[in-house]
Amino acid sequence: MKAALFGGIDAQVSAVSSIAPSLSARPRPYRAAALIALLAQLLFSYRLTIPTKLMFDEVHYVPAARTLITLAGPRNIEHPLLAKEIIAGGILLLGDNSLGWRFFSTLAGTATVLGVFAIVWLMLGRVRPAVFAALFALFNFTVFVEARIAMLDGFMAAFTLLGIASLLWAMRAETARGAWGRWILGSALLGLAVAAKWIAAPFVAYAALGFVIVRLVDARRSGRSVFAALNARPTGGTHRHWRGMAAIPAILVLGVVSIGVYFATFAPAFFYTIDPLTWRTLLPFQATMYAQQTQVLPSHTYQSRWWSWPLMLRPIWYLYERTDGAQRGVLLIGNLVVLWGGLVAVAACLYRGARARDLRLLAAAGLWIGSYVVWIIIPKSIGFFYYYYLPSIFLCIALSVALDHFGRRRQWDMAVLGGCVALFAVFYPILSALPLWGPNSFRVWTWFPSWV
Fold first, then answer.
1. What is the pLDDT of residues 34-62, one digit of tens each?
2. Residue 325 has what DSSP assignment?
3. Alpha carbon of 106 to those of 65, 149, 295: distances in Å?
4. Among residues 207, 105, 206, which one has the least CA distance to residue 157?
């Protein structure tokens, strides 16, 4: 069965990759995106219900989702409600079982892969690098594992990636109406990302900063003043990006929509049987959440420091025990081709982008930097490798953009993808909870002492 599975995967990868060259001359991304979405959803859904028991942080979020269904009262108050509301929706739709808990996570994983595709396509206007970026994300172990567990990070990442893609899509609009509609959509999606997990909040500020930077670059190229670039309502050919949108109204809309959507997701809490929220307690409750987030926690077996995550020093066993009739394991670890190759790509994009003043290269590096640096600043008492989930996704973008820029004629992207798929095949048994041959099976995949 496993041979058949990976044979099918390799065939689909070859089919999807072969689309890129033919579409490069006449870009038509939708067919490629549809094939990637199908491949991702099939891969994430295969044997989704194993293990049938709760694993790792599902023990927190599934009970919180059950409580939301009954509206019994607050639970797991250190995080916003949206991701737990989505898990609750899965339970209501498919039952209180492993399929119900995890089904919407697979959709979030597929949306994340498509978000990567869309961002690279909108940045570069080329299908081939967008395809490879999406495939790097698909075969990056972190995306696969998080797409098959009922945790918060998968939903946060999906809304963040789709929100960024929508804001980039707004840049390409031919009319002010189209630009505003896409901008509002992106703002709402970023609000939903924050409502899933607070770590997405900096991306609202990054979006505003990016708008201003692009507008200033446009102004410099067109010879307009800074004041005119930021405050006029450009139409026609005055500006290349976000036609018909002035900076101050755009930033205000970004903030108002994202904040409004965020607070709207707390609506169920107003109907709790015990300690319901009110309009007077909604804002103070945010302070309570912050206090819970920053409390000093006891040490944990799998805790790690922020500087160790890019080096992949301490992965996390989400599951390693005998369950469902066999010894099984689920290890959250990164694909080393993406994690370590992506770091080289970030450095290359940053260096070349700064020298050539290429905003696309700088943006590819900046997405990783912006998502990673916040973990250096925020006051968390202990850290875990899964905090690196969003940066690990942005490495896929940097890697694809760098390969497209530096190795387009050499087809280095195919070689890198081959390495990704090969490692995915090697680690698949402990990414997907396949039956293992005994309690010491983990030694096959724990290549370094700190991985045990």
1. 999 999 999 999 999 999 999 999 999 99
2. T
3. 17, 8, 31
4. 105
pLDDT in tens, 378-429: 877 788 999 999 999 999 999 999 999 997 767 899 999 999 999 999 999 9
pTM of the model: 0.90
User: Which residue in 142, 155, 185 sits closest to 79, CA to CA?
Assistant: 155
What gap in Å lies between CA 25 and CA 39, rounded to an integer? 24
CA distance 242 to 44: 36
Q: What spatial distance separates the first Cα and last Cα of the chain, rounded to whole Å?
A: 28
Tokens 């490798």 sit at which residue? Answer: 385
**Per-residue CA distances from 345 to 134, 342, 349, 367 (Å):** 16, 5, 6, 12
* Dist. CA 257–CA 33, nearest whole Å: 28
Q: Which residue has the tokens 């194993």?
A: 50
Are 401 and 359 a contacting pair, CB within 8 Å?
no
Question: Which distant-in-sequence residues (6+ apart) come within 8 Å of 43 by Cβ?
Answer: 9, 138, 144
Joined tokens for residue 100:
């119900």
**β-pair type (326-332, 316-323):** antiparallel
Count of CA atoms in the C-beta half-sphere (13 A) of 78: 12
What are the DSSP calls for 330-396, one per residue?
EEE---HHHHHHHHHHHHHHHHHHHHHT-HHHHHHHHHHHHHHHHHHHS--SSB-GGGGHHHHHHHH
**Is residue 369 within 8 Å of residue 95, measured between CB atoms?**
no
Q: Match 């599902």 to its residue by tokens.
A: 58
Give the closest residue to 433 by CA, choosing from 312, 334, 324.
324
Long-range contacts of 10-14 (CB under 8 A, 24+ apart): 10/421, 12/39, 13/39, 13/135, 13/417, 13/421
Query: Which tokens sit at 273?
Result: 């049987």
